[in-house]
Amino acid sequence: KQEVTQIPAALSVPEGENLVLNCSFTDSAIYNLQWFRQDPGKGLTSLLLIQSSQREQTSGRLNASLDKSSGRSTLYIAASQPGDSATYLCAASFSGGYNKLIFGAGTRLAVHP
Amino acid sequence: NAGVTQTPKFQVLKTGQSMTLQCAQDMNHEYMSWYRQDPGMGLRLIHYSVGAGITDQGEVPNGYNVSRSTTEDFPLRLLSAAPSQTSVYFCASSDRGHEQYFGPGTRLTVT
Fold it and tell me: Is residue A50 within 8 Å of A66, Cβ to Cβ?
């Protein structure tokens, strides 16, 4: 069964710290992987999309990597700010279902001043 | 562009009632999907569509029905609401293999 796992479930860091969120998946036949941000009571905001042919994507202070052989993706957040506090979700699609996302349960991030 | 819109934002139903959750997108995307989000769990796929007139089941389709008569709209019907369907429902759209865009969600409570 294709599964996506995110560890840790929650993370609390001081402002200014660089941090890494982890996402692992069970099927190496990944099509793409997308990272989202979700604020409490809100919808999902897309942060980065990595295609299976890519190793990483960058947007501002965010960098996401993809390693198909180890079944892992990481989201790196540089110089964290209190405004980064949110739940971060990763979701993968796999060959044969390129528009069907399988989600991890998320990492709840708190950045304190 | 409004992106992906969903109505209503909130809804309370009694067990056995039926209702339709509306979803619309103005980006001319082929693909549209419905997910539900429950506490402590990731989003799970209910139904999806790869184009007008074409729909298929996702991971948790029981108790839900969909149709897609136009590119823009993808309504989700609850046939006979049950307390287990209390959840937050999200609609998404995308082009093939591209970034998926999500609506703001509908919070449904079934009593």
Answer: yes
Which residue in chain B has the smallest CA separation from A2? B59
Q: Which residues of A touch B31 (CB under 8 A)?
A: 99
Rounded Cα distance, B92 and B4, in Å:
7
pLDDT in tens, A30-86: 999 999 999 998 999 999 999 999 999 999 999 999 999 999 999 999 999 999 999
**CB neighbourhood size of A36 (10 A):** 23
pLDDT at residue B38 tops 90: yes
Q: What is the per-residue pLDDT for B1?
A: 73
The answer to whether A88 touches A2, Cβ cutoff 8 Å, is: no
- Cα(B18)–Cα(A102) distance, integer angstroms: 28
Among partner residues A31, A101, A105, which is closest to B41 by beta-carbon distance?
Answer: A105
User: Are the beta carbons of B91 and B77 closer than 8 angstroms?
Assistant: no
Interface test with A, best of B7, B27, B32, B43 (most A CBs within 10 A): B43
Which tokens sit at A62? 């965010």
Cα–chain center distance at B80: 16
- Amino acid identity of residue A44, one-letter, is L
Which chain B residue's Cα is nearest to A3? B42
